[in-house]
Amino acid sequence: MTPDEAFFTVHADLPREGPGLPADVLWALELAGVSAPGRVLDAGCGPGADLEMLAEVLHEARIEGVDGVAGFVAQASARVARFGDRVRVFEGDMTALSGPYDFIWCAGALYYPGVTEGLRAWRGALARGATVAFSEPVLTGPLEGAVMEFWAGYPEITNLDGVAARVQAAGYEVLGHRMVQGAAWEAYYAPMEARIAGLKPATDPALAAAIEDAEREIALWRQAQGAIAYALLVVRPVDEAS
């Protein structure tokens, strides 16, 4: 088993691939003023937890999900099959979009291209008056101890002001933000812990290493969960401001 195969074995069939709750989606939709029929995208949709929520709430919208991992696309497609043709999921690059979209949702995936770079790439895919909601790792205090260890793989992490500066550099303005902490992370890690329990003991070295990495990540979060957060921001292009 390769390291990538081991990682996806640990993450297989999880309800979501990052912290979040349905309430986060509802908050963003309300702030963004999304209610009428339109075209909506979940960028980096993973296994489809938020995609499903968008479809449940936006009854008349055309909704799409895109992810670069075939396994997640398959899982998300099965999850939203009950909505019929109104919701579709495809494999692809979430920064190479045609649109136009009235609302783009992106939970915990914009850091891959970078906040500024990703938002710039989406400008041409947004309809007039469209908004974007995305969550991004953010520091709420000093980068030290368990917090520093937890974010070691993301040296670009910054505080809320730093994220806002990246938004501004892309030519957008922040309409509001909400912190994603506590229960939203438990909703991600609790199913992972159950998945790990079903995989142990692992005899494959790569799988054993992947399990160890996941357990270490969860342990660091539990040590410093009050200081580990995403910020969920709703933003829009500055030239769309009214």
TrEMBL record:
* Identification of the protein by name: Trans-aconitate methyltransferase
Q: Which UniProt keywords apply?
A: Methyltransferase, Transferase
- Share an example GO biological-process annotation for this protein: methylation
Task: Report the GO molecular function annotations.
Answer: methyltransferase activity
Task: Recite the lineage of the species.
Answer: Bacteria, Pseudomonadati, Pseudomonadota, Alphaproteobacteria, Rhodobacterales
Asked if the record carries the keyword Coiled coil, the reply is: no
Domain Methyltransferase as annotated: residue spans: 40-126
InterPro entries registered for this protein in UniProt: Methyltransf_25, SAM-dependent_MTases_sf
What would be one Pfam family of this protein?
Methyltransf_25
Source domain of life = Bacteria
